[in-house]
# Entry
Amino acid sequence: MVATSIIIIVIYFIILIFLTLRTPKSTKETSFEDFYTGSKSMGAIVVGLVMLVTYYSGTTWTGWTGFTAETGIFGAYMLPYAVFAGIAMYMLSGKIWPLGKRFNLGTMADIFELRYRSIGLKMLIGFLGATLNITWITMELVTIGYIINIATGGAVSLEIGALIGVVFMTAYTLWGGVRSVSSVNTFQSSLMVVGAIGVVMYAVYSTYGSVTNMFEVVLSIRPETFIIDGAYNMRQWFSFVLLCAMGVLCYPSLYMKFYLGKSTNEIKKSSIFNVAGALWSILILFGGFAIIGYEAVTQVSLGTNAEEGFLLIVKNSGNAFIYGLALVFILAATMGTVDGTLLAISGIFSSDLIQGYKRIQRKSGLIGEESYSLNEANDNMVKRTRIIIIIVSVLGYFVTLMDLPLLVMIAMINYQGIALFFVPLIGALMWKKGTKIAAYTSIIAGFITTFGLMILKVDLSGYLPGVIGVLIGAVLYVAVSLATYKEELPEAKYYEIIKSTITNTEKEIDSLNKGLV
# Structure
């Protein structure tokens, strides 16, 4: 079984090398727009698959199946949040892509600068978003190390396994930027979807005979698994759904992929694909429930670590090929999340933070002003981004060497912070009276509230601190906007420009870029 797993994983890495080498290598002449967003030239299928593998991570099959095994039907929070996120992506794509096309946007923070007319606010959004999302790199590297370790029968340690993953992902990300990431991720996402369906259904049917029998076994031994018991747990469940739905829409890597498409329609199609992909998360529920009833059916213990349960079920089945396939599709999901996140974070540090600081120093024009593009052309942002990719990779790897808590809990810390961007982001796109001061106030107060409650370990009767942070941030955003709004404010004037850009056709946007209208 070990030999088969090693062969399958080696073949997987060879395919990654092939896909990377067939992608044009970025050179010193490559623009940051091409390195980071592929010059907005990709179709719906590629964008959809790249998006899908970004937020269905490899930890899904360790952390999330283990979490479902411990909490039961609570784990189904993934379904409503994934469906909502896909629908919201569809609605936002019609606003975000035209802005990205006309104003050459690359990050979520660029939207904040464009709308609120503030480089400082852009830098704040960039710093907080990138810092929080480093946790995803850490979680996924832990999973990569674990997969390679068990695939080799323990011959390769967790630390060396994670290092192998880091080296591969850093190499192909440096090679061609988002083009090589997209090429690799299209393959990885396809492998993840097909592999997960095949392996999960095999695990359920080989153990229980059918999905129905699995649920009947679980019902007989742990009936409480099917109930979210009491107001306290319902509030927790609501918190998970709300914060994950908001958080995934503010995930920095998502915006890099929003800008990949060659048209608004391509991004909308990819969003529809992701709504359908939400149904795929039912497999995660199946994996968790398979763990719950496994010992009752087979009389074989899976041990005390529920995060290892699903893979142990597949391993115990005795089918070497299916086991190897399970390892490689989890590896594909993991690497597909890390590479996009790695590139997104590095681009944010390069563009939003370092470049933002330089622009403040030289009193550069803001996005949308004539002096903006002239100032930006003077810096070799691709080279700087590549250096940051290496730095973030090294830092992420060393964090994996620490003793970390349950992976789902790490993710929820991330979501609670990222979700605080949601209200000022929606305000930027949809509400004329939103102001720069209100955005600052909302985000700063939200973060102080959320992480203050975390540190103090305040009992919120089931609600997560991020829910309170989002609520306070929303109230302050509306109140401060109404108190500070004036028609002559730059952000009020730019709302009209944003509104008109969103309603323009793609040909009209091209004309605007060329100065023809």
Remarks:
- The longest helix spans residues 320-361.
- The radius of gyration is 23 Å.
